Amino acid sequence: MHIMEGFLPAEWCVVWWLIALPFILIGTLELRAIMQKDREYLPLLGACGAFIFILSALKLPSVTGSCSHPTGTGLSILCFGPFITSVIGAIVLLFQALILAHGGLSTLGANMISMAIGGPLAGLAIYRLLKNTRVNIYLTVFLVTAAADLVTYIITSFELALAYPAQVGGVGTSFLAFFAIFAITQIPLAIVEGSILALVFKYIVQMKPEILERRGVFSREQIERALSAENAGLLGGDRS
Amino acid sequence: MIRNHLLELVTFIVILAFIGIFLLVSANGAHTFGGLDDLGSQKVGEMTGRPADSFKPLIPQYEPPSGEIEATLFALQAAFGGLVVGLVFGYWLGQKRRAPAP
């Protein structure tokens, strides 16, 4: 979701830009470290970033009769954390602001906070919660991805509500008004996106389990359990 | 066989359901399937009592002159992503084939 250019008052543009900048800065440093020292992770980085490019280019129709984008940030937050994810997200948003007029430069800060930072952080919170449990890793990926998608829109609603509080009821009422438009549209998209990225993650586990393990995304036991569950056909109990 | 591909099956069903919902929604009632961005902007207009087109860009920006050009640019974005995914997955598959996991 983009807040269109001109639709945020200048002072809010500045606020969101200032909050977003440290993430981008740290992310850039982390990216540089990976490019210099940990080049083995570059393919994984490419794949995670590529899914943000692909999914955020798709405008999908939803139950409300309007269209919206998935965000695609789930894989990246799992594999590379919030800072690098913020940089990749920012690149996509910059591209869309500069040549597609989806979002703009002044609202880029707010859009980074929602799609590239806030949503992914919500995914990260769920990941931390489930990481050391026996929950099936694909279910974790599904939940992380869906949360990153959905929370992006919750934050956008919040950003708009802060800038445009309702005359009666203030920020809360205004939030609910924006949220009502966004959330219902986005829930089906979040479910589709979660399923697709969970499937993609399964293929990464099958092709490159060692890189996920070395990156510390999931432990060796969890990855082995996922692989052997597949072979034994036990996956069924873990997904509902 | 099916159980090994349960996740594929679930994803397939989810996508089918999504398409089904789309067909159902578009068959019932006149929906424009406009973008959420625009809906959000309209809502801002409603909340502030200002028409949505009275909001002028703070920073001048390029706008694709037509929907066709916009579609091309979005397709390019997705194609770029697809290219990278194909490259990486192909690279990993090649590696795996050469050195099968123990």
Describe it.
Chain A is an all-alpha fold and 240 residues long. Chain A has one domain: Arp2/3 complex 21 kDa subunit ARPC3. The longest helix of chain A has 38 residues. Chain A is globular, with a radius of gyration of 18 Å. The two termini of chain A are 28 Å apart. The C terminus of chain A is likely disordered. By secondary structure, chain B is mainly alpha-helical. Chain B has a domain of 41 residues. Chain B is 66% helix and 2% strand. Chain B contains 3 helices and 1 strand. In chain B, 13% of the residues are buried. At the A-B interface, α2, β1, β2, α3 and α5 of A face α1, β1, α2 and α3 of B. β2 of chain A pairs parallel with β1 of chain B.
Strand content of chain B: under 5%
Rg result of chain A:
18 Å
Count of individual beta strands of chain B: 1
Given the structure, what is the number of helices of chain A? 8
Oligomer: heterodimer
In short:
Chain A is mainly α and 240 residues long. Helix content of chain A is 74%, strand content 2%.
Helices, strands, pairings?
The complex is a heterodimer of chains A (240) and B (102).
Chain A: H1 10-36, H2 42-57, E1 60-61, E2 66-68, H3 74-99, H4 108-131, H5 137-163, H6 170-207, H7 209-214, H8 220-232
Antiparallel strand pairs in A: 1-2
Chain B: H1 6-27, E1 34-35, H2 36-48, H3 67-98
Task: Describe the structure using short key phrases.
heterodimer; A: 240 residues; mainly alpha; Arp2/3 complex 21 kDa subunit ARPC3; two-stranded antiparallel ribbon; 8 helices; 2 strands; 74% helix; globular; B: 102 residues; 66% helix
